[in-house]
Amino acid sequence: MLAKGLVIIPTYNEIENVTAITSAVFELSEPFDVLIVDDNSPDGTADKVLELQEKYPDRLHLLLRKEKQGLGKAYINGFQWALQRDYPFVFEMDADFSHDPKDLVRLYKACKKPGVDVAIGSRYVTGVNVVNWPLKRVLLSYGASFYVKFVTGMRIHDPTAGFICYRRKVIESINLEAIQFVGYAFQIEMKFRAHTRGFKLVEVPIIFKDRELGQSKMSGAIIHEAVWGVLSMKWKSLFNRKRKTYEQNTYQECEHRK
Length: 258
Fold this sequence. Notes:
The chain is α/β, with parallel strands linked by helices. Helices cover about 45% and strands about 15% of the residues. The protein is built from 8 helices and 9 strands.
């Protein structure tokens, strides 16, 4: 069956999860291909993927990077890989089962509806749907979402979400080389760029479950990037808008004088 889209899964030391997560995707009612973007994991994640490719030769792909360069760079490389092929939809998903692979089908069905361009697996659109997180982390995440909404003006309840389906045209419209964030703020920047380009973003309620195997990649530096990065991103968008308006008015004035 022809794949409905490509699921990009970044990995770093995910040997405990990679077999189960890829198998779960391939067991879905809708056919999706999987691209593992591995940052040269010392635990042998890439070797395990190569082994699994013998079982899924046409559906499981591996993009091996030389070193750990951040989540954003991993997705950008994955997007570039996808755009070189004919996938109409491109997904982001974690390797640790915090995102339920079954929800890929729900994201796909939401995104393929007429007029929809991005479907976001949202933890907060119907309350707080997070399992096994300490209260401090829930408050931090929920507070970050409110902060991003306030600063950017996006009406998205979960702007930091990392479980997403993009139509191909959305990724094609974004200059991936110009993306400035590599950590937590990458997810915000991608949504913001889609939003400022007039694409329609919708949220699909999901239940987010904290990882059971492996270690979280969250760090203080990632949160710091998100807090200050959002302000920088919004400021630059306002400056660019004013510059475009000035250039347009100047052009119109010159045309009027002719």
